[in-house]
Amino acid sequence: MPGAEAAPPPPRGRSGCHPGARAGWIIFTGLRKGCAVEAGRRDAGRDAEGELEAERDYLLRGRRALAGMRAEAERTQGAGGDPFADKVTNEYLRVARLRRIVALAEGDGTAPLFFARLDYAHLDYAPPADTPTGLDAPAAAGVEGRRFYLGRRHVREAAGDDPLVVDWRADIARPFYRAHRGDPMGVLRRRRFGHDGAELTAFEDELLTRPAGDATPDGGAVVPSGGLLEREIERPRSGPMRDIVATIQPEQDEIVRAELSVSLCVQGAPGTGKTAVGLHRAAYLLFAHRERLARAGVLVVGPNRAFLGYIAAVLPALGEFTVRHSTLADLVDDITVGGADTVEAATLKGDARMATVLRRALHDGLRPPTGPVAVVTRAGRWTVGEEEFAGLFADAAAGLAARTFRYAIGRERLAGRLANAVRVRAEAGGHFPTDGAVRTLARSRAVRDAVEAAWPKADAAGLVRRLLTDAALLARAADGVLDADEQRLLLAAAPPGGARTARWSPADVFCIDEARDLIGGTGGFGHLIVDEAQDLSPLQCRALARRCADGSLTVLGDLAQGTTPWAATSWSAQLTHLGRPDAHLEVLTRGYRVPAEILGFAGRLLTHIAAELTAPTSARTARGALTLLPTPDVAATVTRPGRPRPGPQRLVRGRRRRRRHRHPRRRPARRGPGRRRAARR
């Protein structure tokens, strides 16, 4: 900011105003109770420390209101009525009540009830002619002159009262993340709060709109110091992932609040907040589309269970407990994995072409009818000729080929059409079977045998097993799709055992999942969030696409961080496999976790790994975070993955520290007088 001067904090326990501060900039209170700094002119003689006390009183008021809301939820009873007749309804209400009670809990008391305040401007203020007012924005309509506290949940004192705290996902909170001097969106002041555990310790103001008659030096608008925001970003990260509702940046908020119907792909370097943005998007969508997603559900897919454990606390902290977290393997956990493939075989089994091969193998079992079908009922004997039966079969097979329906549905349709043909003959003979009788007829022995001969029942595991062991079937199904060498590779990678006892490999599992969908379809979710999506094989992408066929996707990843042999090299191809070729690509290039020293050094590899990506930058620096050690022999210096390197040093947080023992395999087993002797052995 032109002309702005930093205001150093006063001694602990004192209040004061830095004499070099410029008038009209920000108000900031110290990080400890009793320590206050006012940088700039006091607003109408306001005592910053007194205002901090007022904010603390408001926090206590909010906590009392939250406790009242929880007590009210605990007193709420079910709908009443017959406990047996309304069993399902009562159980639903009971679960909903318990979830609300948990959502209204204040946790361990360390999370602040609110983290920010928005003061909307009055209509009579006079902004500069070249500054947009933003008051025509929908978020500002009807809120002129009002203030709103923003938190992780809605808090009110009594039903119908104005909220004491507004949920961060509400439209009224949008300007907190989006407003700026060029477009204040009707906001006069944006206030951030600092907390030490449960105690409110500081606040920081950013004036986005100047009242009438007010002027600032150099004609500039008021801008933030960013002290609290910077401190939150710089706060050490340890333990499970935390939510970032207080520090969401404008480009991140654009992604979080995108419409449910929009599928997004977020490309971001390490520390740019991809995962956090995806989780906050899930929370926002559940808030904005509660009724729809309550039925369809939201699924978060992570690379492994350790990762899911790391992110597990984020959504509950935001009051959302219904989101399912899963790994890819968990989606097909009913298939036992006991085998392993070579890299070449696993890559081929995960290739998108396998979907075509599997579909052809399934359709290979269809056999056109070779004779008439005779059906005997109490009313008489009816015969459907071979030609008519063949026509019914051809119609069903055409629908299957056009993917109008799945294999199992086609089988049922053929049985129903055959039974209806018998009904026509019965009606011509003066008999009029009911719809129920026709459905029974479709399940009769004669109809079932005829359908089984033409359209045999299929099993997904059995189909994959036959495909990988029957060279003739594989040759027919893979003709023009896989070459001879690839077919031999698949046959050599067949799992031992039968269809029920086979030791399937992880790649086999998704072939079976593909076959299951071809046969009977797959259930879906309203929204799917996929992290580390660059590591998915095409067949794994298809497995996820099936689980949100009627919903939308949020895809998170980094093409420069691929770790699998089949890792994606372009989002265009990966999104096509995920069934969303038209998804919007959003790129995050600003890092908030990795220091600039490390990110800049690692960025040198980007031109060799993914030259088309934009080099990331970092919002934070950490002196000493990176130490460069010149060496004439890199191979001798770098530790090989999975093997401890013998020697007296180890690498910790970018620096080398001396080992206290002489060899990594000879660590002292106990303390006491024998410790030195044990170390010398």
Secondary structure layout plus pairing:
Elements: E1 15-17, E2 28-29, E3 36-38, H1 48-75, H2 87-103, E4 116-120, E5 147-151, E6 166-167, H3 174-178, E7 187-196, E8 199-207, H4 227-234, H5 250-256, E9 264-268, H6 274-288, H7 290-296, E10 298-302, H8 305-311, H9 314-317, E11 324-327, H10 328-331, H11 343-349, H12 353-363, E12 373-377, E13 380-384, H13 386-401, H14 407-428, H15 435-442, H16 445-454, H17 460-469, H18 471-477, H19 484-492, H20 506-520, E14 527-530, H21 538-546, E15 552-557, H22 571-577, E16 584-588, E17 590-591, H23 596-602, H24 606-609, E18 617-618, H25 634-637, E19 649-652, E20 655-658, H26 675-680
Parallel strand pairs: 1-3, 5-6, 9-15, 9-16, 10-11, 10-14, 14-15, 17-18
Antiparallel strand pairs: 2-3, 4-5, 4-7, 7-8, 12-13, 19-20
Helix pairs in contact: 1-2, 5-6, 6-7, 12-18, 12-20, 13-14, 14-15, 17-18, 17-20, 20-21
Word description of this protein:
The structure is a single chain. By secondary structure, the chain is of the alpha/beta class. It folds into four domains: 15-234, no CATH class; 245-340 and 479-620, Rossmann fold, CATH 3.40.50.300; 373-454, no CATH class; 634-680, no CATH class. 37% of the residues lie in helices and 13% in strands. The chain has a six-stranded parallel beta sheet. Strand 7 (187-196) and strand 8 form a beta hairpin. Helix 13 runs antiparallel to helix 14, helix 17 packs across helix 20 (506-520) and helix 20 (506-520) runs parallel beside helix 21 (538-546). Mean pLDDT is 81; it is low at 1-45, 124-140, 215-225 and 642-681. Residues 652-681 have a biased composition (Basic residues). Residues 635-681 are annotated as: Disordered.
